[in-house]
Amino acid sequence: MDKLHSPQLLSWQLATHNRYVSEIMRGCSRGCRFCHAGYFYRPVRERNSEDILQELIREVQASGWDEAGLISLSSSDYTCIRELMFSLLKAVNTSKTHVSLPSLRVDSLDDALVSLMQSLGREGLTIAPEAGSQRLRDIINKNLTEEEIMRGVEIALSLSWQKIKLYFMIGLPEETDEDIVSIINLIDKINTLGKRRLNINVTLSPFTPKPFTPFQWCAMLDPETLLARARRVKEHFHRAKNIRIKYHTIENSLLEACITRGDEDMAKVIYRAWQNGAVFDAWNENWDFSKWEKAFEQCGIEPSRYLGKKNPETELPWDFIDIGVCKEFLKSEYEKSLKGELSRDCRDLCSLCGACDDRAQTVSADPPKPLALDPAPIHAQKEYNIQIQYRYRIGYQKTGLLRFISHLDWMRMLFRRIAVLELPTVFTMGFSPHPKVTPFTATARRRGEHG
Asked: Helix, strand, coil proportions of the chain in percent (round to 5)?
């Protein structure tokens, strides 16, 4: 293959998101006022749908991926997402490979889209209301109503989905205790839907003000209040076995806010923390906030310097960076948030933010044309009855550096290689399908013991 279409690398070790990833669009036009990526990656640019389709088919054929993800900030906003998913449904053998759509706007869901997602292997719905009350959703410009949230859940339930993931933020600007109660009430309402009991996973994330957003001037709530509000939600559902509430480590979010709004002096804190032994902090067992507290103290810097409210008229440490979005636009959005005013999707009505110019403009994709598939396309692979058994005997040995590969990693790679072979093979029927293979040792082979 040429360099442009080189296959995605397969890691021997299990990755966090262990799937083939296809970025279908970059940027987001929704304008959520807390979202750094939504402003940083403006304007919206959608990839050619035929390129997405052909590359995904080629990757699955070459590497045997059991899951492929169509990735973006808001994948359901891709102009021809339904046509693309329908083409994938015809081209991909969904008994071997599931196609996921991780980032969805619940207000864009309908029966047809959810049905396509189900056919491609999706088993649950993810919703990010971010706030429990409509007042607070308007402040952050979420443009999502409770009716739309409930309708999305009902569509999912009508197609037998029983898993719901909910994402909320705590500590948002202008948030009150009543907004926390609204989170609880919304979860309760969702839990009452459906004839069967839903499995609901709720994640509470502390709000951290980010540069290049309308909320870059806002303060971060103190850790004691953040923790109290998170615990209030968790304790309300402590008897509900089908509802799981989790929240991020508060100190971790405080440090994130300090770094993301930091100046040159913050670099000294980072270096000092490293000298204090703050290494591999992403691993929970290595995370020790006291090392960072000591670093702040040694540098003579108070964290409140980065966590407090900022004057919109003063210069910010990152003002010298030009991302295309003008500061005056961010100020106007901040002022609108204080009034609870909504802003339109910039693809419906240009917001005049400054991101579009001669170098970058909004690009929308056209629907894919009818596929010109290879002689042995994925979708034409024969599906075999699960009751049928096919017996093959494969011998192998690990030599050289391969002897350091763990058994589980080796078996996972072996499954992938079998998946791409042109052999009749029985696959498991779960969410992550893989060939039904029974490994046995050389000793067992000599005795004739095998599956």
From this structure: 40, 10, 50
Joined tokens for residue 179: 């907004």
**pLDDT(238) > 50:** yes
The residue that leads in pLDDT, 116 or 64, is 64
Confidence of residue 112 (pLDDT cuts 50, 70, 90): confident
Decide if 143 contacts 29 (C-beta within 8 A): no
Residue 133 to residues 148, 183, 375, Cα–Cα distance (Å): 13, 7, 54
What DSSP designation does 120 have?
T
Find the DSSP H helices in 340-430: 407-419
Nearest to 132 by CA among 178, 192, 199: 178
**Residue 426 one-letter amino acid:** V
Q: Which residues pair with 244 in a beta bridge?
A: 201
Crossing angle of helices 250-260 and 264-275, rounded to 10°: 140
At 105 the pLDDT is: 75
The CA-atom distances, in angstroms, between 258 and each of 133, 168, 209, 279, 280 are 28, 21, 9, 18, 18
CATH of 3-262+315-339, one of 2.40.50.140, 3.90.930.12, 3.30.1330.40, 3.80.30.20: 3.80.30.20
Distance of CA 276 to the CA centre of its chain: 33
- Residue 298 phi/psi, 5° resolution? -65, -30
Which residue, 409, 400, 401, 404, is CA-closest to 12?
409
Residue of 102, 105, 38 lying closest to 70 (CA atoms):
102
Q: Where in the chain is the domain with CATH 3.80.30.20?
A: 3-262+315-339
Where residue 440 falls among pLDDT bands split at 50, 70, 90?
Answer: low
pTM of the predicted model, to two decimals?
A: 0.83
For residues 3 and 12, give the distance between their C-alpha atoms in angstroms, rounded to a whole number: 22
For the segment 327-343, the average pLDDT, to the nearest whole number, is 95
pLDDT at 443 over 80: no
Please report, in angstroms and rounded to a whole number, the separation of the first and last CA atoms in the chain.
37
